Amino acid sequence: MHVFVTGATGWIGSAVVDELLDAGHEVTGLARSDASAATLERKGALVRRGDLDDLDGLRAGAAEAEAVIHLANKHDWGNPAESNRAERAAVETFADALTGTGRAFVLAAGLSTMAAGRRATETDLSPAVGPDSHRGGAENLALEYAEKGMRVISARFSPSVHGVGDHGFVAALVAAAREHGVSGYLGDGTAAWSAVHRTDAARLVRLGLEGAPTGTLLHAVAEEAVTTKEIAEAIGRTLDVPVASVAPEKAAEHFGFVGRFFSLDMSASSERTRELLKWAPFGPTLVEDIEAGAYS
User: Fold this and answer.
1) What is the mean pLDDT of the chain?
2) What is the pTM of this model?
3) CATH class of 2-159+196-222
4) Architecture in CATH for domain 162-194+224-267+278-291
5) Which single residue of 74, 100, 140, 181 has CA 20 to 30 Å from 147?
């Protein structure tokens, strides 16, 4: 299958490209820079130059391929409205190009606080609806096309997609611990995050592309709930710094941008995903990765 991948040299996207190529698929990756293009070419992938604002390029990439995996996001924490706008525009563009073709469209989504007081499941719908919501309401927008001749699959990634080289939320927590000389957690530390190793997440995306029916919500979750205190304690052991609770009002000061998320319970189940795709994660746990030096 010829697959057009956005975010093809990103943290998750680069692993997805490797997974697709290893499985015998042909890949065209979207590349913003010469360096990204060269990385894709070395792997044996084709290259389309452009970015998320090049909507004509996105449309052409979709038209030339047999499937689209959309993983790119601006992740502009200083201007989330711009990230939301770009994400919605990209999904609208892909939907216009793929409607009526029967081709697959896999998009990245996040696991947020979908289910108050319990772990989110694949039956929970995202509360993000409309252009002004998180990610521009892209998941719900895409699902509107699930019965319009486009095979829509949403891959909901754990808040921690971890591994050597991760520069996401956990890396920010490690940086804060180094800066302040203490590994912190907020409140009593019972808020919990789901987690998945990067290679397991990439394999799930491929399996979803190959076999998930339209309208499927997939949870890239290996560990359902790792408490924020457990994360802080693992960082503390690795850096040999004390572990302490941080007052909620000090969250931004201590943790930076990740402070707005660290007190949230973002736990989730992947029972239905595992059953549907026979997906069995085998990568290291988040704590194992931290203690093995993945963030050092």
Assistant:
1) 95
2) 0.95
3) alpha beta
4) Alpha-Beta Complex (3.90)
5) 74
